[in-house]
Design a protein that fits this description.
The protein is mainly α and 424 residues long. The chain is built from 16 helices and no strands.
Length: 424
């Protein structure tokens, strides 16, 4: 039976060096999105420091019981599987170990954020404020790129069709979605509608600007996932809060209308829409179908433990090179196929267990009071952005996209735990 005591999974604050260390690492976590924009090495270092600091406090206080919770235990099991079974049997074990060993930092970052760093609304407010600043910087920089063709940070449009903002690659839309949705999910815990109506209106306006910006980036996966998250949240709101059905339907209508206007007025976005339609119409002949097929071919060749982490490209050349039309990529552009190809059935099942535990942990919010239920609906949107399987995605094993994913998921689940704690 799955335990549901996530609300009590807390490495409590104490006086002395452990509390000072927590405050320092809380600031580091708050700065992660800004570091991901301007210093990838700094972001990786910050995540590592957070994980090691958490581990030091657990050891000092002998809080081994934290590892017994299914959610954290599943991450530990994944890491052990990667290092004891997947990497030793990989095509190139050294390459696989170079990723599987340090994968622990993602698990520790997740554990540290959810049960140590964010323990109160005050902690959450600090993170939301600084994350909001990073989000504003990325959107403003990207909007300048829309208008002038070059961002304030000096980056041109990618292939004249996709925005980059302050990044050197066209991933700013997914970045904004993965940073922005957890901030929305935190709003019900921080703002009371009876006392903060103006602030809630400001958040709604900021969310609308963020949504429009994601559509303007030209990133199809980010746009589709954002629309899907809005749709799932809207449908849930209609079912849970039927008295607000009209307001929800108007919001969804305005979102669809905004997307249509943007596509009609922007030749660049319309070109991306036409490309997407062509991919859907002839998906079996598309580049994505080829990538997914390569991943499945690798899994069929190494079905139990996979080809090994960071071995996708090498195994592609060995297995699928004769039929590949555009060279062998570093990953299959789908998270679940990546787990399947590089870690096999064993790794994929372990990851799916973790995903199921994440969803089960947040589910009680939908049965709580109004604040809990609104939070739960927004959390559902976060899960669509982070966990939806049927879209092309970035790698979940390479440093930058993996760190964006785990940072976003960590804050999402920290919001879940705080909401469950207050609900109790």
């Amino acid at each position: 039976m799955i335990r549901t005591d996530f609300a009590s999974l807390e490495l409590s604050a104490t006086s002395g060096w452990t509390e000072i260390l927590r405050q320092i690492n809380l600031v580091l976590f708050a700065l992660l999105p800004m570091l991901l924009l301007f210093s990838r090495g700094g972001a990786d270092a910050a995540a590592t420091i957070i994980g090691l600091s958490f581990l030091a406090v657990v050891i000092a206080r002998r809080q081994w019981s934290l590892a017994a919770h299914p959610l954290l235990a599943s991450l530990l099991v994944i890491w052990l599987l990667l290092n004891l079974l997947v990497s030793p049997l990989a095509i190139e074990p050294a390459d696989s170990f170079s990723r599987s060993v340090v994968w622990l930092r993602f698990a520790l970052l997740f554990a540290a954020t959810t049960c140590w760093l964010i323990q109160s609304r005050r902690d959450l407010k600090l993170v939301v404020a600084i994350w909001g600043g990073a989000l504003a910087v990325s959107i403003i920089d990207g909007l300048v790129q829309v208008i002038t063709g070059t961002s304030l940070s000096g980056n041109p449009l990618y292939n004249t069709t996709r925005l980059t903002g302050p990044l050197d690659r066209p991933n700013i839309g997914m970045y904004v979605a993965r940073v922005g949705f957890p901030l929305l999910a935190a709003t019900p815990l921080l703002l009371d509608p009876r006392r903060h109506s103006l602030r809630i209106a400001a958040v709604a306006i900021a969310a609308a600007i963020g949504f429009i910006f994601i559509l303007l980036t030209g990133e199809r996966s980010a746009a589709l996932l954002s629309v899907a998250a809005l749709g799932i949240g809207g449908l849930g709101a209609i079912l849970i809060f039927p008295r607000y059905r009209l307001q929800v339907l108007i919001t969804l209508f305005l979102a669809v209308t905004a997307g249509g206007i943007i596509a009609a007025m922007s030749e660049r976005i319309w070109y991306r829409v036409v490309q997407f339609s062509a991919v859907l119409k002839h998906f079996s002949d598309s580049h994505y179908a080829e990538l997914f097929g390569i991943g499945l071919d690798i899994w069929r060749s190494y079905p139990v433990f996979g080809a090994g982490m960071k071995n996708f490209q090498a195994s592609c050349w060995a297995i699928s090179a004769p039929v590949v039309t555009d060279g062998c990529p570093a990953h299959p552009h789908n998270v679940y196929i990546e787990w399947m190809a590089e870690t096999g059935t064993v790794g994929l099942i372990a990851y799916l267990v973790f995903v199921a535990l994440v969803l089960a942990t947040a589910r009680p919010l939908l049965r709580g009071g109004p604040v809990a239920r609104v939070t739960g609906l927004l959390i559902a949107g976060c899960f669509v952005i982070l966990l939806f399987p049927l879209v092309p995605t970035q790698s979940q094993f390479s440093n930058w996209p993996a760190l964006v994913f785990w940072t976003s998921l960590a804050l999402t689940m920290a919001v879940v735990r705080l909401a469950l704690k207050e609900r109790s």
